[in-house]
Amino acid sequence: MTNDDRSEYGAESPHPHESRGQPTYEDSHAHESRDQPPHEDPHPHDDHPLPKKTPSPENTPSPKNRQAPESQQMTTTHQKCGGPPDPRPQPAAPRTLAVPDLSLVVLIGATGSGKSTFAARHFRPTEVLSSDVCRGLVSDDENDQSASGDAFDVLHYIAGKRLAAGRLTVVDATNVQSEARTQLVRLAREHDVLPVAIVLDVPEQVCAARNAARADRAGLPRRVIQRHQRELRRSLRHLEREGFRKVHVLRGEEEVASAEVVTERRFNDLRHLTGPFDIIGDIHGCRSELETLLGRLGYALVRDALGRPVDAAHPEGRTAVFVGDLVDRGPDSPGVLRLVMGMVGAGHALCVPGNHENKLGRYLKGSKVQHTHGLAETIEQLDKEDAAFRTEVGEFIRGLVSHYVLDGGGLVVCHAGLPEKYHGRTSGRVRSFALYGDTTGETDEFGLPVRYPWAEDYRGRAAVVYGHTPTPRANWLNNTLCLDTGCVFGGAMTALRWPERELVDVPAERVWYEPTKPLATEAPGGADGRPLDLNDVTGRRIVETRHMGRLAVKGENAAAALEVMSRFAIDPRLLPYLPPTMAPCATSAEEGYLEHPAEAFAGYRADGVREVVCEEKHMGSRAVALVCRDEAAAGELFGVPKGVSGALYTRTGRPFFDDPEATERVLRRVRDCAEEAGLWDELETDWLLLDAELMPWSLKATGLLRRQYAAVGAASAAAFPGVLGALEAAAARGVEVSPLLGRQRGRAADAAAFTEAYRRYCWRVGAESADGGAPREPGGGAGLGALEGVRLAPFQILAARGRSLAGLAHTEQLALLDRLIAAEDAVAARDGGTGGGGTDRPGLLATTRRILVDTEDESSVAAGIAWWQELTAEGGEGMVVKPVQALLRQADGRLVQPGVKCRGREYLRIIYGPEYTRPENLRRLRVRHLGHKRSLALREYALGLEALDRMADGEPLWRVHEAVFAVLALESEPVDPRL
After folding, report:
1. CA-based diameter of the chain, in Å?
2. CA distance 7 to 447
3. Which residues contact 589 (CB under 8 A, 6 or more apart)?
């Protein structure tokens, strides 16, 4: 097997005599391709600048039409730079100098030629880097030539930073020596931008006169100017060979003064096109399947007189985008080319080249290439077409651009993938990666090159959609998607609707070409990829959120979160969300109360919120339940192993139960209830994310109860009877101890109330459940087995497949959950047990009671207060007050608190201690600093919403976890834990 035969599915390496880093079609400067080393050509043929006034999508010309002006410009420039200047006087004509919007512009001219004046007139001050200014920065003297070395180090460093950030950069220095220019061209190559030379060829006497007029240069020797002029003359004919993509020569004062600089957009920069798009994967000559796929996408085909498809348009104005590899291996490569070329020419499609088009283009140009990997079949098919069609194909391929940046920079389309540092860049190295990807240098058991898994490390904002490597199924990995699903090998042809992120595919009609190895691998990095990386969550971080802007996470807080996540958390693939903390209502001035509903209602009324819902606050542990419709859905969507159908975890990401079977029992009951209630079909989802409370509190707080609360209760129960007995005996003997006895009796009553307060939230589960009945066998009763007595009270549906439901009104949320809970009766009866529906009934699911309150209606407010008093009198923890409508903002644009908790008087004994209600203690405790707690609650809320939105948008796991980690990190901020 030859080297050319070893490439996988058309991913062949370029011909050894035609380096991937070189231009691959006729270049007006043939010497460039000979002199530039592979992968370092800073100016590939495909990414010539495109004027900023780009036609609209429906009128966008094909790439071949865009090529002509650039070729003419290069020809003119070559003639100007090809020999010594014409000594005859020439009339000055206005010159338009085209400069790519991302390039390194090098001004070249003798001292006094007017470079700084020219730069100030045509470029922004921040774009210009002056060697004189840098010399002054390092030596306090712009004319101190001994500081030139350090000055140029500074200049090159700043230029590198600007180019890395994608900024146009202009170097204002003499640059008449080739050594100085070589460093700048190298800098442009390192950052994959185009180097542009602007030469100011001004007569020696003019330069001398200008220098003489400057006090700091009046004594400059004339020989310096003469030396600069000689070096400039020697340089002119070699500038393009040195690597400058564009060379503009301005001769004389008038031509310099009349010149105009025009900034041009790069060909690959189509950020102004926002779609919608339909991105279509590798076709490989499968014309029939392409027609079927276009039909499914809604395109109407246009046929010529012979019935051949020559165009396709979408009635809603969508644009098709082809990721390359249109040809080879399949039955009708000419038919595919005819259709795609027609769509591109009509403005109905865009197309980037694949490695197979690149090889076909070299063949059509007359280069020697090996007729392997399906090229022989394409050549045979093209031989049946006329010469005019073959010429058109060659021109079409030569005009294709390596990649496109679309939709405001949020989408990049290329053939083989592209790291973020190459997005929008223009170089042979970029084109090479876009066409061929990269390899590790190894070969697999089939002798095929092992692809470098660049997508594993991708952390870019833009979604990268590509093809090239066949996979059985298109899956997102770190915001990248491979659309090559091996149609020509009997797989499918796949398209991505953008921005909907919906996949549409059609099966292959047959196996058109036998693959070298089975389509049994994922896209590069997909099978054994690293979806999360330590660098994604460590150190100080800024997280962009849609609802609160940029939120900062301190490095020490991130370290604490990492400790919890890495040691105790569940599988990160099942951890898309962590619930935020909740602030209490404002401190109450009501006699005997620290918190009271009146303050909650008044606070929301002040924020402009009229309608709120008061929800019963269950005394348990916060739980998040990720419930999948079945194990298959969990495996497909979240990549978890067989036997796992979801997750049940705490607000710090830890599993609630050590026994996976216990988790599955809970998930199974919720899943069955959702099925019974019809929620799967109604919400069009195969998974649900629920925010809930899991009871009893003692289920996860046993250690806290024993060490803290029970210890206080036990100590008081042991001490107070003896103390009271002694005091009562002393009083019986006539000793005046009445004040002391009264205080101690009060303290004993407070201690008893404290013990009673926490006992309300503790009961046995499993073998000895809350009803005190005989032990049950695992799996008995209502099918909960050892979880008899456990209650799950869901109060919000956070998300479903493809959408966040956090913005749904709370009344609608609770109505859906009521149906879920009501369905448990039927489910439990089917399982041979009893139903549920509340904490006073057997079963798993508990209802969240609630009442609506109008904050501007006194009677409604009074009813809400009375309801709270009734709840707390029964031993309830209290309530949570929320705006009925979610995601509300105040008049100044700030988010309204999503909810505040108003806890009962007796429950607060657990938090603040048995004697907190004493007047002297209440006075002290009323000085509560709630500002930090409220800020923390809002920030965590915004981060939680961001995680849900990113998950709904199909963003990669690391992006979702960036927000999830931030929530946990903020929990490490110092704040009064009693709040």
Report:
1. 132
2. 8
3. 926
Q: Could you give the C-alpha distances from 525 to 11, 69, 420, 433, 754, in angstroms and in order?
A: 17, 42, 17, 17, 57
What is the DSSP secondary structure assignment for residue 237, as one 8-state letter? T
Rg (CA), the chain: 37
DSSP state of 403: -
Beta bridge partners of 22: none
CA distances from 810 to 31, 73, 817 (A): 70, 64, 10
Q: How far does CA 97 lie from the centroid of its chain?
A: 38
Sign, CA torsion 350/353/356/358:
positive
Q: Name, in order, each residue with C-beta under 8 angstroms of 196's C-beta and a sequence gap of 6 or more.
A: 99, 100, 103, 104, 105, 106, 244, 245, 246, 247, 248
Nearest-angstrom CA–CA distance, 57 and 275 = 9
In this structure, the answer to whether residues 334 and 412 fall within a common structural domain is yes
Provide the pLDDT for residue 827.
87
Residues 232, 296: one domain? no
Which stretches of the chain drop beneath a pLDDT of 50?
1-46, 48-84, 520-530, 768-783, 835-841
Q: Is residue 318 part of a domain?
A: yes
β-strand partners of 902 = 879
| Same-domain pairing of 351 and 495 | yes
- Which residue among 718, 735, 760 closes a domain? 760
Q: How far is residue 588's CA from residue 282's CA, in Å, rounded to a whole number?
A: 67
Residue 625: what pLDDT? 94
How does pLDDT run across 802-825, given as a tens digit for each residue? 889 999 999 999 999 999 999 988
* 191 and 235 in a common domain: yes
Last residue of a domain, one of 439, 474, 507: 507
CA distances from 310 to 313, 337, 338, 495, 899 (A): 11, 9, 6, 20, 59
Q: Which CATH number belongs to the domain containing residue 191 in this structure?
A: 3.40.50.300
What is residue 342's predicted lDDT score, i.e. its pLDDT? 96
pLDDT at 618: 87
294 shares a domain with 203: no
> Residue written as tokens 């000689």?
230
> How many domains, the chain?
3
347-394 pLDDT, tens digit each: 999 999 999 999 999 999 999 999 988 999 999 999 999 999 999 999
Q: What is the DSSP string of 329-343?
A: SSS-HHHHHHHHHHH
Q: Does the residue 829 lie in any domain?
A: no
In CATH, what number is assigned to the domain containing residue 294? 3.60.21.10
For the chain, the residue count is 979
- Which two three-digit tokens encode residue 196? 């542009």
The answer on 135 and 176 residing in a single domain is yes
Q: Examine the domain organization and report whether 237 and 306 are in the same domain.
A: no
Domain assignment of residue 244, yes or no: yes
The side-by-side arrangement of strands in the sheet containing 49-51 is 49-51, 260-266, 96-100
- State whether 160 and 297 are in the same domain: no
Tell the burial category of 83 from Cβ atoms under 10 Å away from its Cβ (0-12, 13-18, 19+). Answer: exposed
Closest CA to 249 of 79, 49, 51, 124: 79
Distance CA 570, CA 648 (A): 9
Between CA 202 and CA 256 the distance in angstroms is 8
Closest CA to 843 of 853, 834, 832, 856: 834
User: Residue 605 has what pLDDT?
Assistant: 94
Q: So what's the pLDDT on residue 299?
A: 97
In a domain, 241, yes or no: yes
Instruction: Say if strands 463-466 and 480-482 run parallel, antiparallel, or are unpaired.
Output: parallel
Tokens 């470079």, located at residue: 115
Distance CA 526, CA 484 (A): 14
Question: Which residues span the domain enclosing 381?
Answer: 277-507
**The amino acid at 220:** L
Give the phi and the psi of residue 50 in degrees, each rounded to 5: -115, 130
